[in-house]
Amino acid sequence: MWNMGPLTKELKKYNKKIHIETSGSHPLTGDWDWICLSPKKAKLPIDDAYKYADELKIIIYNNHDFIFAEEQAEKVNKNAILYLQPEWGKRKKMMPLMVEFVKKNPKWKLSLQTHKYLNIP
């Protein structure tokens, strides 16, 4: 939504590695070392967002999200790392299903919000 070019340019002057997590729903500006694409069903990424994704992270809230995950995985480049992350409020219900899904689909990995398990806001 904002022009990130000036910020990333300045950070690069100091040899900083720059990562971003984005839904991809708006054009991405700036020079990034790593891009995590985390699409949202309500506003899907623009087509360009998929080709720049170093990783794809899908939040799992319900069973349909596994279908959504596979649909989104088809759109990213073949080198993108694929992650499933439980929606925090549904983690107890969805985690066993996610583990089974990953066992059957080893291209996917589990991602956890470690800070929430450690009670760090």
Short overview:
With 121 residues, this protein is an alpha/beta fold. The chain contains five helices and five strands. The longest helix has 14 residues, at 91-104.
> What is the general shape?
globular
Strand elements, count: 5
How are the strands ordered across the major sheet? 1-2-3-4-5
Strand content: 15-25%
From the alpha-carbon coordinates, what is the Rg to the nearest angstrom?
15 Å
What descriptive keywords fit this protein?
single chain, alpha/beta, five-stranded parallel β-sheet, about 120 residues
Protein described:
The protein starts with a helix and ends with a helix. The protein has five helices and five strands. By secondary structure, the protein is α/β, with parallel strands linked by helices. The protein is globular and about 45 Å long. It has helices spanning 5-13, 47-52, 64-73, 91-104, 114-117; strands at 19-22, 34-37, 55-60, 81-86, 108-110. The protein has a five-stranded parallel β-sheet with strand order 1-2-3-4-5.
What's the structural blueprint in terms of helices and strands?
Layout: H1 5-13, E1 19-22, E2 34-37, H2 47-52, E3 55-60, H3 64-73, E4 81-86, H4 91-104, E5 108-110, H5 114-117
Parallel strand pairs: 1-2, 2-3, 3-4, 4-5
